[in-house]
Amino acid sequence: MKDFLDLTSKNIHLRTLHSPMVGYWTLEFGGLNQVFHIWKYESFAQRAAVRTALTKDQEWQEKYISYMLPLLDKQENEITYLVPWCELGSSEKDGVYELVTFQMKPGGPAVWGQSFKAAIKAHINSGYTKLIGVFHTEYGLLNRVHVLWWNESPDSRAAGRHYAHEDPRLVAAVRESVQFLKSQQNNLLLPTAFSPLK
Q1: What is the DSSP string of 140-193?
Q2: What mean pLDDT is predicted for residues 119-145?
Q3: Reported confidence tier of residue 105, pLDDT bands at 50, 70, 90
Q4: Is the pLDDT at 163 greater than 90, yes or no?
Q5: How big is the CA angle at 55 (ends 64 and 44), to the nearest 5 degrees?
Q6: Which of 144, 196, 145, 186 is nearest to 37 (CA)?
Q7: What predicted TM-score, i.e. pTM, was given to this entire model?
Q8: Kind of pairing, strands 21-29 and 181-191?
Q9: Backbone angles phi, psi at 141, to 5 degrees
Q10: How far is CA 162 from CA 108, 113, 118, 126, 195, in A?
Q11: CA-to-CA distance for 28 and 188, rounded, in angstroms?
């Protein structure tokens, strides 16, 4: 993992020449020896063009890919959209991130969208955490929603969650939403030194 991160840190500028990185993190809790990163594309055509350009970028291939592949165990890729009622947020200062992945029941946002939105808004209104983005999967496992939160520290997140569990408005909003939930996974993410989101 250390070798992978050192290699990436030295060469990530070659990748960001092709398209903007939103954020790059290591997983602290919820999975070990893993990284999670988000890249922004304006269209599928732009993403395809970037992928083609990367395969032809000799410096990227020789300085990064050739050394990285032996370090890689597995890789997963998803295409997601920000939900219409959410704009991509940012962090004003360094902190930690919580990636919460919800596997919703089939039917899509037409079925669970309003109650899910209400639960997210209730967490935002509580003020203990900051929303960075809500992403709905287009390609990958369907009916999956990723919610990315920023917190000052793991302890402030824990205190906020304790408060949230005692807030009747938040509890009611979550109770309405969980009727559409199949599973949930939480990961604590630490931003890398080269991540735009700190």
Answers
A1: SSTTEEEEEEEES-HHHHHHHHHHHHT-HHHHHHHHHHHTTEEEEEEEEEEE-T
A2: 93
A3: very high
A4: no
A5: 115
A6: 196
A7: 0.94
A8: antiparallel
A9: -75, 120
A10: 30, 25, 19, 12, 29
A11: 5
| Range with the largest mean pLDDT of 64-68, 82-86, 107-111 | 64-68
Q: What are 72-94's pLDDT values in tens digits?
A: 999 999 999 999 999 999 988 99
**Residues in Cβ contact with 114 at an 8 Å cutoff, skipping those fewer than 6 apart:** none
| 46 torsion bin: left (phi>0), alpha (psi -120 to 50), beta (else) | alpha
- What three-state secondary structure class fits 93? coil
Residues 6 or more apart whose Cβ sits within 8 Å of residue 26:
1, 5, 34, 35, 36, 189, 190, 192
Token output for 183: 């599973």
- Chain centroid to Cα 150, Å, comes to 11
Residues 6+ apart with CB under 8 A from 30: 99, 185, 186, 187, 188
As a 3-state breakdown, the chain gives helix, strand, coil percent values, each rounded to 5, of 40, 30, 30
**Running DSSP on this structure, what letter comes out for residue 92?**
S
Alpha-carbon Rg for the chain in angstroms: 18
Question: Can you tell me the mean pLDDT for 103-117?
Answer: 92
Q: Rounded CA gap, 52 and 169, in Å?
A: 49
Find out whether 90 and 197 touch, Cβ atoms under 8 Å.
yes
